[in-house]
Specification:
Helix content is about 35%, strand content about 15%. The protein has about 575 residues and is of the alpha/beta class. The strands form six sheets. It has a six-stranded parallel beta sheet with strand order 3-2-1-4-5-6, with helices on both faces. Helix 12 (about 315-330) links the parallel strand 7 and strand 8. It is elongated. Residues about 1-5, about 10-35 and about 200-210 have low confidence and may be disordered.
């Protein structure tokens, strides 16, 4: 391990420690007050601010010269990772006698007591660590936009500014120019009023829009210029071999900007907090799926796999590259996709999707099973439900159907009890939905039907998944009502032991993992099917009727099934021991 790599790791630890310190309260006692953090120097009205400048090329150099022109700042330190680059030469010639540093940590170590404030004009991902260290040392900070890389980093920086009693200002020069004040004057005078929305866009290329969107991969490694400290430039980013395109911000081509989009950039379903990337940009594909990329990193840290949200909005070629990255780590790593329809007949991007052809997803969320089971317990004929379930089993390859995610409720759909016991929303708004909650007989009957539904979900091919709150009968229409906090005060306990027994039965009986599904009877409200494994066979009889039934088993024996109940019988293959019954009264 070389000294640069060691210092880089130590630096990351220090940044994390500073982040935690800003997020936690400080405890001061009379014994520790004297050792409190450095205090900002109070600058009088006739004094000049001692300013250190991090980033002295390109935009950083412009900031440096603007501060110098004010006549109110002493430039006491210059810091840049490349002191010999063409874009830093102008600043070095303008301030030939100012101390120079390539590492901001060394600058603070050697000159911390001579610095009042710091300007930060460096790549976006470096704003946070420089600003956090500066503020912890009692230095005011001017940060070029954007303030930081994520909302969470911004929140920590705001907390740090309050904790250390310093100013952290983000530069947005447009708000300091005449057009801004002219608009404000028009609004104050009533010339412009009743404004409900403002759309801002640029109609000409700018310096951050000219990148090559057709690069085919991460830029190849190049020799690091002798004047550049590449490790410090990378800061908190993961390691890449040097290439001039990184220094010039080539990653910005992953996003689609333009006046046709609300907010100036394409975002997922119009949510401005979720900017969309161009999934087919080669450099983005490499960032996600390449060796050392996002997929590779998290799987090697111990993740068992990935679930791709709204997989039908991802190109098949991108999903296939994700699969390659997943299986490169281990064939046992798993790739699940959110697909609401039959994944083998789904059309999208003007062609039939290739999810389950052995080169895309391992399996999918099983929305067809969910819909069929809920419809059956609500009153759909058993024949129709059985046909729908068998259709999915016939279409999906065995590895996919045996690992499909079976469920009744999700964060995107109405809760199961609401679907079963309440009336459909039919487009009615949130005010109507928010006040709905079934009680009395409707609730009691709904719980019986929900119990039957989970008996089916736990015994069909696939992997059962319990959405939080279903076990205590939580209700709710679509988002946000299906995402309410867990009701810890609930006294509804009847479904929990049933679900626990179903889970234990599934764990102990081999037939429920990979056994063949065979429907023996599907008639009106009676659904009777088998799961045939290598060593055991299970029979499941669900009785939606209001009468007790006596149902013949495949062995020739008979079993009773209570109204609105179910019975599960498990036998070993090859001989006829006593039946093992699981019967809900």
């Amino acid at each position: 391990m070389d000294s640069n790599e060691f210092s880089r790791r130590e630096f990351l630890k220090r940044v994390l420690a500073l982040s935690a310190a800003a997020a936690l309260p400080t405890i001061l006692t009379k014994n520790t007050l004297s050792a409190a953090r450095p205090k900002p120097r109070i600058v009088g009205p006739n004094e000049r601010v001692n300013l250190a400048v991090c980033g002295i090329g390109n935009r950083g150099g412009e900031i440096l010269r603007e501060f110098a022109k004010t006549g109110e700042a002493n430039i006491v330190a210059l810091c840049d990772v490349d002191m010999g680059a063409p874009h830093t030469e102008q600043s070095l010639k303008q301030f030939p006698n100012v101390p120079r540093f390539q590492d901001f940590r060394q600058m603070f170590d050697k000159m911390g007591d001579q610095i009042d404030a710091v300007s930060v004009g460096v790549p976006d991902f470096s704003h946070f660590p420089i600003c956090m260290l500066a503020m912890s040392l009692g230095k005011h900070v001017y940060t070029e936009k954007p303030m930081a890389r994520t909302f969470y980093e911004v929140e920590l920086m705001m907390k740090a500014a309050k904790k250390y009693k310093v100013v952290n200002q983000m530069g947005n020069q447009g708000h300091s120019e005449g057009n801004y004040f002219q608009f404000k004057a028009w609004k104050d005078a009533g010339i412009i009023k009743d404004v409900t929305a403002i759309t801002a866009h640029m109609n000409a290329p700018r310096r951050w829009h000219g990148w090559d969107t057709n690069i085919k991969s991460f830029p190849p490694g190049q020799p690091v210029p002798q004047t550049l400290d590449w490790n410090t430039w990378l800061m908190t980013a993961r390691f890449h071999d040097y290439n001039k395109d990184y220094v010039n911000g080539q990653w910005r081509c992953w996003y689609d900007f333009g006046p046709q989009y609300k907010g100036g950039y394409r975002s997922w379903w119009g949510f401005e907090t979720l900017p969309e990337v161009n999934e087919e940009t080669p450099s983005f594909v490499e960032f996600i799926t390449g060796e050392g990329g996002v997929i590779d990193t998290w799987l090697r840290r111990g993740a068992a796999g990935f679930r791709l949200d709204v997989a039908d909005e991802l190109p098949d070629a991108f999903i296939e590259k994700i699969r390659t990255a997943v299986k490169r780590v281990s064939p046992e790593k798993f790739l699940l996709g959110e697909v609401w329809e039959d994944a083998t007949t789904k059309f999208g991007f003007d062609h039939r999707r290739t999810y389950l052809l052995g080169k895309g997803l391992d399996s999918v969320m099983n929305y067809p099973f969910k819909n069929s089971v809920l419809d059956f317990v609500k009153g759909k004929p058993a024949q129709q439900a059985a046909n729908e379930i068998l259709s999915i089993c016939e279409h999906y390859p065995a590895p996919a159907i045996n690992t499909a995610l079976n469920f009744l409720s999700t964060h995107d759909t109405e809760r199961a009890l609401t679907v079963i016991a309440d009336e459909p929303a039919n487009g009615r708004g949130r005010e109507w939905q928010s006040g709905r909650s079934v009680t009395g007989e409707a609730y009691e009957e709904g719980m019986l039907r929900l119990r039957m539904a989970y008996a089916i979900i736990y015994t069909l091919p696939g992997v059962p998944c319990l959405y939080y709150g279903d076990e205590i009968g939580m209700q709710g229409y679509r988002d946000p009502f299906n995402r309410a906090f867990f009701c810890w005060d609930s006294h509804e306990e009847r479904l929990r032991p049933v679900l626990a027994q179903l889970a234990q039965l599934r764990h102990s009986c081999e037939a429920f993992r990979t056994g063949e599904l065979r429907v023996l009877r599907a008639e009106d409200g009676i659904l009777h099917y088998q799961r045939i494994g290598k060593t055991e066979t299970a029979e499941i009889i669900v009785n939606r009727s209001e009468h007790i039934i006596v149902e013949p088993l495949a062995s020739g024996k008979h079993t009773e099934v209570n109204p609105m109940g179910f019975t599960i019988v498990v036998e070993e293959n090859g001989h006829n021991p006593n039946h093992s019954y699981y019967d809900i009264q």
